[in-house]
Amino acid sequence: MRYILFYKPYGVLSQFTDDGGRQTLKDYIPVPDVYPVGRLDWDSEGLVLLTDDGRLQHRLSDPQYGHPRTYWVQVERIPDQLALERLAAGVEIQKYQTKPALVKLLAAEPQLPPRNPPIRDRQNIPTAWIELTLTEGKNRQVRRMTAAVGFPTLRLVRVAIGSLSLEGLSLGSWRDLTSTEVKAVKKGQK
């Protein structure tokens, strides 16, 4: 069995093929027969877990087994306490009430590689970074949640999946999980 962590850059599809000629996982990961667990949108960056372990893939993808995923989100303007509380309690997006989340305003911009292309920069509109941990993964959920509370997402980086993190990975690189990490991921999914 293979278990791979990948630091997906902006503008890469979370799949191995694309009829439109866009960059895919195949451009970075020369390992046959592994598939991403869940997905990370083309315009998002960060941690992707890939495996050929169908049972683990099913359990991590099935909503009934919610597992934490942590994101650093750069938003337009600086969220107030009410917006953060609304995100934490869950907000309605597309006639769906999101589950409660862990949310905090980051005191400083996190140390991340520059995005290519950079986000749009408006000198007269400040930005802030929040850390958001979800246990569900609806389509474009983070972006829809921040927009619902009035603070649109400018940049989105998944920094952790459960106990797995981006630490030690550079943008566009991948590595196999250690046996200890595999055991922890499997233990968390019983």
Strand content: 25-35%
CATH topology-level fold name of the largest domain = Alpha-Beta Plaits
Question: What structural class do helix, strand and pairing data support?
Answer: alpha+beta
Backbone shape: globular
> What number of structural domains do the residues give?
2
Distance between the termini: 18 Å
Question: What CATH first level of the largest domain would be assigned?
Answer: Alpha Beta
Low confidence ranges: none
- Could you spell the SSE succession in H and E letters? EEEHEHEEEEHEEEH
Share of helix among residues? 10-25%
Oligomer: single chain
CATH superfamily of the largest domain: Pseudouridine synthase I, catalytic domain, N-terminal subdomain
| Name of the CATH architecture of the largest domain | 2-Layer Sandwich
Radius of gyration: 17 Å
- Helix segment tally: 4
The counted number of beta strands is 11
Biggest sheet architecture: 9 strands, mixed
> How confident is the prediction overall: mean pLDDT?
91
Précis, in short:
The chain has 190 residues and is of the alpha+beta class. It is built from four helices and eleven strands, in the order βββαβαββββαβββα.
Keywords:
190 residues, alpha+beta, Alpha-Beta Plaits, nine-stranded mixed β-sheet, two-stranded antiparallel sheet, 4 helices, 11 strands, 18% helix, globular
SSE order and pairing:
Blueprint lengths: L2 E6 L26 E2 L8 E7 L2 H8 L7 E8 L4 H9 L2 E2 L2 E2 L4 E4 L21 E8 L6 H8 L4 E9 L2 E2 L8 E3 L2 H9 L3
Question: How would you describe this protein?
Answer:
- There is one protein chain.
- By secondary structure, the protein is of the alpha+beta class.
- It has 2 domains: 94 residues, 2-Layer Sandwich (Alpha-Beta Plaits), CATH 3.30.70.580; 94 residues, Alpha-Beta Plaits (2-Layer Sandwich).
- 18% of the residues lie in helices and 28% in strands.
- The protein contains 4 helices and 11 strands, in the order E-E-E-H-E-H-E-E-E-E-H-E-E-E-H.
- Strand 2 and strand 3 form a beta hairpin.
- The longest helix is centred in the middle third of the chain and has 9 residues.
